[in-house]
Design goal:
about 100 residues, mainly alpha, 2 helices, rod-shaped
């Protein structure tokens, strides 16, 4: 009778230990996953801020796209156009950007 009781107690302790290990492992896994998701959230929030700034810039550009100043700036900077009788000087000492 005494041996049976000890055997039951040992089996109960083993089951309890395994249960505690399972719960502890699950808890640790959840903590790691939460940390990973928090890091991803920070990265996505930074990306969202960048996209909001880009959107704001594009909205401003769209609103001003019909203005004379905007058209002239695009013509000069992107299309390399000049006004009539305008002379362009190129600084040979200025480093060339790729």
């Amino acid at each position: 009778m005494q041996k049976r009781k000890r055997k039951k107690i040992k089996v109960l302790h083993i089951i309890l230990a395994l249960l505690l290990l399972y719960v502890g492992g699950t808890f640790a896994y959840c903590k790691v996953k939460i940390h990973r998701l928090e890091q991803e959230k920070i990265i996505l929030e930074e990306r969202l801020e960048g996209l909001k700034e880009t959107k704001k810039s594009l909205e401003y550009e769209y609103e001003n796209s019909n203005s004379i100043e905007y058209v002239e700036r695009v013509a000069r900077e992107e299309l390399k156009m000049v006004k009539k009788n305008e002379i362009i000087y190129i600084d040979a000492n200025k480093s060339i950007k790729p």
